[in-house]
Amino acid sequence: MTGSFVMVAPMSQHSPNSPNSPDRPDSTDFGFQRVPWREKARRVRAVFDSVADRYDLMNDLMSAGTHRLWKQFLLSLTGLKAGDRALDIAAGTGDIAAGLARQVGKSGLVVLSDINASMLRHGRDRLIDRAVVANVGYAQADAERLPFADSSFHCVTIAFGLRNVTDKAAALASMRRVLKPGGQLLILEFSQPVLPALGRLYDLYSFNVLPWLGRAVAGDAESYRYLAESIRRHPDQQGLIELMKTAGLESCRYHNLMGGIVAVHRGYRY
After folding, report:
1. Which of 9, 21, 126, 139 is surrounded by the fewest CB atoms within 10 Å?
2. Structural domain contains residue 217
3. What pTM did the predictor assign?
4. Residue 151: which domain range?
5. For position 260, which CATH number holds?
6. Does 9 reside within a domain?
7. In whole angstroms, how large is the CA radius of gyration of the chain?
């Protein structure tokens, strides 16, 4: 798999929200809209197809570069060592994967996984440009149905991707399944500010500045309006802890960054 770009078939889905389950709701959120359950994944792919080429530039502009510090904090928590195996889900342009590759060394392996082919190709090109080649592989895959064997990875990471997943419970269960016993899941995601005044400023920025930046830089205001709305539909810090516990993860906790605007959640498979 090392260095290759592969299409992989998803494993069977046993979540009560799977496409064939009678317990699955008819609709789900897409930002502030309600859309048919099966429609969300297609719409999310269209968003990231639209923004892939300007994704890194927009991240730097939207966060004033602080997203790099958030990612470094996540990487500081992995506990990975030379020879380990790591999976980066919703790998995007490869920032997290590059750090993981350094940690596991030449004898280890990092797999970049993303449901969006455009983002995955962009990430592969970025890593090649950074000479990160020998110990990485690529898989276009759905986080809800990861196509890897049980107990495959010492660490699984997902940065700014979980809120775009339709069935978060299924995705978390799938991530736990592919962790080795003792392995850790790390989730970097936008969350809920802990101070009301900060929340009001954040809303003003999100619903005014972000769409304007999207239109001016990426030529796509609507995609960035969706991204802002999707943050508000994502579970808050404690809500995500409960989802992680329900998925079978243990010793779950979180670290607030930027006053809770961003949080890193972590949990283990024992």
Report:
1. 9
2. no
3. 0.86
4. 5-194+224-268
5. 3.40.50.150
6. yes
7. 17
